């Protein structure tokens, strides 16, 4: 954690006038030259057959399934070398989710493992949904069909991922933690692997104590399972000129783990306060155990008021009697944040394959927003990517785009494609506001997605104009309510204070943009100090909100960022 500036600050330009601005006009371009390296792997590259970039549920599921297929093939392809690259020091350290999990894809991946032996905490006991009109009132509403969780399980995504990592290593998968992928190696029009990020650089980017140079990892197929807003994924899609029918849109979730004052016996979701009516989102409170509760607030990043602050809204939310009755007398244990892809079916890339590469999980945008689910899609897509990679390896030495295109068909025909098609416009309907959007969403649910037909157009989050206003006042007491610096501490962030900044800031940052970045970032990375924008890069928890709306996020040395235990 760093509470001191990591640079001297960027001078602010003139005001945009009128207190309103459009974030995209001040956002730097994607740093494609860094993320796409036009070179073949060097002679000392680590050779693999298939590489999964990202040690989350998608990457690990793919590696496990590929190892299983290799075993079943009884040496047809020899001993496959399968690798997983993960940027955190320990599997799960950077993983954050609600999480209520649909067990089906886990049962498919681990058919000999009983539900009670899977890495879940407990079956969902009961669903309760509330509308909060203000800070003191609540109305229980019928649980929408898409949010009913009978048969699902409450879990910690950190624990799921660590358990899956053990299963992967038992099957002979090479799991490399602490190795972020800095760029894709592209040569001859195809992806041939990745180059990792060097470590031990000082603030100026020069080798310091503990310096470790970058390393090349070659692969016949590279599966990008980086999670939300993956930098390599965005560069790949840009390079391959892969579009989307709608731009991807995002929300930001801020979450805390509590030792509650009293046990919680239900899975709770809310709509309404403290979010304004023109901000899509809601809150959740889940029981992980009698003495452990997960609490969080999710807000879409297309909110119109530039001073809205998701972290501040979560702190205010805890004062509502619905939450206070469980939290009073308790203790906050952990804090974290993460962006979530919300565009659904129309925002999935037009193709998920390229010569030598596939895209899986959150990196592809596989999230069902009405159901508040995505983990089981990540697992399923990882499994399907493994099957596509295996079939390609059976047919040729260097899988091209045509061979790997079978992956797209498998995704479309799976539970992922079916669910996203049925809910294709539900999230988009809320562009009309909470009440009109709720009516439209209900009609979509009743008609299986056929109403209103067609596709609802949406702008990118960064294209939405932001007006002045929206600030949320709260006084952090350091225990029940916390400020952003305390949150970063409770995220277990141990990033070096003298690490080079991994955030690319625009050359001309207006005062309006500086204020917007300061409120938008949940970790206090950006601070406006007079006529300068100061960037506290070591505070970053890799939530990627900055990459959606402001300064670009790029990979940094392994082990940087949060160290979540049970998020």
Indicate the CATH topology of the domain at 34-95 and 161-247 and 345-424.
FAD/NAD(P)-binding domain
Sheet with the most strands?
9 strands, mixed
* Distance between the first and last residues' Cα: 18 Å
Q: How many strand segments?
A: 26
Give the uncertain stretches in residue-range form.
1-6
CATH class of the domain at 34-95 and 161-247 and 345-424: Alpha Beta
Fraction of residues in β-strands = 15-25%
Quick tags:
567 residues, 16 helices, alpha+beta, nine-stranded mixed sheet, disordered N terminus, FAD/NAD(P)-binding domain, seven-stranded mixed sheet, single chain
Explain what this protein looks like in three dimensions.
With 567 residues, the chain is α+β, with helices and mostly antiparallel strands. It has a domain at 34-95 and 161-247 and 345-424: FAD/NAD(P)-binding domain (3-Layer(bba) Sandwich), CATH 3.50.50. Helices cover 25% and strands 23% of the residues. The chain is built from 16 helices and 26 strands. The strands form six sheets. Strands 2, 3, 4, 10, 11, 12, 15, 21 and 22 form a nine-stranded mixed sheet that branches. Helix 2 (57-72) packs parallel to helix 4 and helix 8 packs antiparallel against helix 10. The model is unreliable at 1-6 (pLDDT under 50).
Concise structural overview:
This protein is α+β, with helices and mostly antiparallel strands. The chain has a domain at 34-95 and 161-247 and 345-424: FAD/NAD(P)-binding domain, CATH 3.50.50.60. It has 16 helices and 26 strands.
């Amino acid at each position: 954690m760093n509470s001191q500036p990591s640079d001297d600050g960027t001078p602010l330009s003139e005001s945009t006038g009128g207190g309103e601005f459009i974030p995209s006009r001040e956002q730097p371009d994607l740093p494609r030259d860094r993320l796409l390296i036009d070179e073949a792997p060097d002679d000392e590259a680590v050779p693999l057959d298939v590489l999964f970039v990202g040690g989350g549920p998608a990457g690990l599921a793919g590696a496990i399934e590929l190892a299983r297929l290799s075993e079943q093939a009884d040496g047809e392809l020899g001993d496959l070398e399968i690798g997983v690259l993960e940027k955190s020091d320990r599997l799960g350290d950077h993983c954050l989710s609600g999480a209520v999990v649909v067990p089906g894809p886990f049962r498919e991946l681990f058919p000999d493992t009983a539900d009670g032996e899977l890495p879940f905490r407990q079956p969902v006991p009961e669903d309760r949904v509330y509308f909060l009109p203000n800070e003191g009132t609540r109305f229980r509403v019928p649980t929408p069909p898409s949010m009913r969780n009978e048969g699902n399980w409450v879990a910690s995504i950190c624990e799921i991922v660590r358990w899956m990592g053990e299963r992967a290593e038992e099957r002979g998968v090479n799991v490399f933690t602490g190795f972020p992928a800095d760029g894709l190696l592209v040569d001859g029009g195809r992806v041939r692997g990745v180059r990792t990020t060097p470590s031990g650089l000082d603030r100026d980017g020069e080798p310091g104590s503990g310096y470790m140079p970058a390393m090349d990892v070659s692969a016949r197929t590279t599966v990008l399972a980086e999670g939300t807003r993956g930098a390599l994924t965005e560069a790949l899609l840009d390079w391959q000129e892969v579009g989307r029918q709608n731009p991807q849109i995002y929300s930001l979730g801020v979450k805390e783990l509590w030792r509650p004052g009293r046990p919680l016996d239900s899975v709770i979701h809310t709509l309404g306060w403290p979010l304004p009516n023109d901000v899509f989102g809601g809150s959740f409170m889940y029981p992980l155990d009698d003495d452990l509760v997960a609490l969080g607030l999710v807000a879409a990043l297309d909110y119109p008021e530039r001073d809205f602050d998701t972290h501040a809204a979560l702190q205010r939310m805890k004062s509502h009697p619905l939450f206070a009755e469980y939290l009073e007398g308790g203790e906050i244990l952990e804090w974290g944040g993460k962006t979530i892809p919300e565009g659904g079916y129309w925002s999935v890339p037009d193709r998920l394959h390229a010569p030598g590469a596939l895209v899986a999980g959150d990196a592809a945008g596989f999230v069902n927003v009405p159901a508040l689910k995505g983990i089981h899609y990540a697992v399923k897509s990882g499994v399907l990517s493994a099957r596509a990679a295996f079939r390609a390896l059976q047919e040729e030495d260097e899988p091209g785009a045509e061979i790997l295109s079978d992956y797209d068909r498998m995704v479309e025909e799976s539970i992922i494609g079916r669910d996203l098609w049925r809910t294709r416009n539900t999230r988009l309907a809320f562009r009309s506001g909470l009440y009109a959007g709720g009516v439209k969403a209900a009609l979509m649910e009743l008609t299986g997605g056929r109403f209103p037909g067609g596709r609802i157009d949406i702008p990118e989050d960064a294209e939405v104009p932001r007006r002045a206003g929206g600030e949320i006042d709260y006084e952090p007491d350091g225990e029940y309510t916390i400020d952003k610096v305390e949150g970063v501490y409770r995220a277990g962030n141990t990033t070096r204070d003298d690490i080079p900044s991994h955030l690319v800031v625009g050359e001309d940052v207006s005062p309006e943009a500086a204020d917007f970045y300061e409120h938008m970032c949940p970790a206090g990375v950006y601070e406006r100090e007079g006529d300068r924008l100061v960037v506290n890069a070591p505070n970053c928890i890799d939530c990627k909100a900055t990459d959606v709306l402001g300064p670009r996020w790029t990979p940094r040395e392994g082990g940087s960022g949060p160290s979540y235990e049970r998020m």
